[in-house]
Description:
The chain has two helices and four strands.
Amino acid sequence: MFLACTLALVGTAVVCVRVVGQHELARLAARAASVADDACAAAENSLTTGHRLRCTLHDDGTVTVAVSSRVTVPLVGRLVTHILPWTEVTMMREPPPVLG
C-alpha cells in the first residue's frame, strides 16, 4: 500500500511539474508572437519538438497561443500516457523593435 501511494504521489508530481512547464512554454511562445511580424511563425519557432501549438490573431490586436504536450508518468508510462490539456496565453501585439 505504501509503495502504491508513493508511486501515485511521484506520478502526480511529474504531471504537475509538466503543467507548470507547459504554461511557461505557452507564455514564452506568446511573448515571441507578440513582438514579431509573423506572429504564428515566431511562436512555432520558439517551441521545441514534442509540443502542439495553436496560434490565433485577433482583430483587437492580441494574439492567443495555446500549447499542449504529451506526458508519460514514470514507472507506469507504458500503461498511462497523458496528453495535457491546452494551455492558453493571450498577449497584446507590440510593434517589433527598431534596430540601429
